[in-house]
Amino acid sequence: MKPEILIINGPNLNLVGRREPSIYGDRSLDEYLDTLAASTPEATINRMQSNHEGDIIDMLHEWGFDKSIKGIVLNAGAYTHTSLAIADAIAAIEVPVVEVHISNVASREPIRHHSMITPVCRGVIAGFGLDSYRLAVEAILKF
Length: 143
Ligand code: DQA
Known about the structure:
alpha/beta
């Protein structure tokens, strides 16, 4: 069986490609992730997006005890900076989570410097544009 990876994208990430292109680029995230999945034949890459905090928690609960999932890539968007509930969900599950950001959050406004979820994630990849996702997938495949 091929290893499976789940990519969860949070609020406003459905708009990448149209949203603030000077920060997030002008390429659609869906198109990028299609290409990533096609160029990673050694794994099955599943993905989901929601603009709702509770949906993200439900996804973590649903997939986070599944032994066939090697890791979860999570870009929690702005919930990164606010959500104790998502942090608790990551702490509760068994599948390791890699925190991902398209932008280098540490170089942006001070409100983005703190992540609620970093302490409960396996690691963080930020600032490499959409390639942050590829780097996270590569990290998970080495777990
Ligand atoms: C983001 C950074 C967050 O601060 C922001 O709220 C996002 C996207 C990123 O991928 O760079 O929505 O997670």
